[in-house]
Amino acid sequence: MMAAPSATVFARRAFSYLMNDQAELALRDAMQAQVCIPEWPTAFYLQALALSKLGMETDAQDMLNDGANFETKRQNSWRS
């Protein structure tokens, strides 16, 4: 039996790729993390970093905004 993919594994590997100037691979793994947990702000933040390193500033800003929106939504749900 094969284990389900882990969002944290994808996120950690994406961060590692970013630290090693491998933005394309980082973006791929950050996107996979988002597939695992669609509203996880960390996945959006990692995608924003990768997109920024790839020179895609508008897309990076959009991802950053999406991540911040999910973060706000999450924090508000904890306070309820």
TrEMBL record:
Domain spans labelled Serine/threonine-protein kinase BSK1-like TPR repeats: 3-48
Which InterPro entries is this protein grouped with?
BSK, TPR-like_helical_dom_sf, TPR_BSK1_C
Q: Which SUPFAM superfamilies match?
A: TPR-like
Q: Which Gene3D superfamilies match?
A: Tetratricopeptide repeat domain
Q: What is its main location?
A: membrane
Can you cite a GO biological process for this protein?
A: brassinosteroid mediated signaling pathway
Keyword presence, Iron? no
Question: What compartments host this protein?
Answer: Cell membrane
Pfam families from the entry?
TPR_BSK1_C (PF25575)
Mind telling me which GO cellular component terms the entry cites? Answer: plasma membrane
Leader sequence range is none
Where would one find coiled-coil regions in this protein? none
Keywords in alphabetical order? ATP-binding, Cell membrane, Kinase, Membrane, Nucleotide-binding, Serine/threonine-protein kinase, Transferase
The GO terms this record gives for MF are: ATP binding; protein serine/threonine kinase activity
Provide the protein name.
Serine/threonine-protein kinase BSK1-like TPR repeats domain-containing protein
Tell me which species this is from: Cannabis sativa
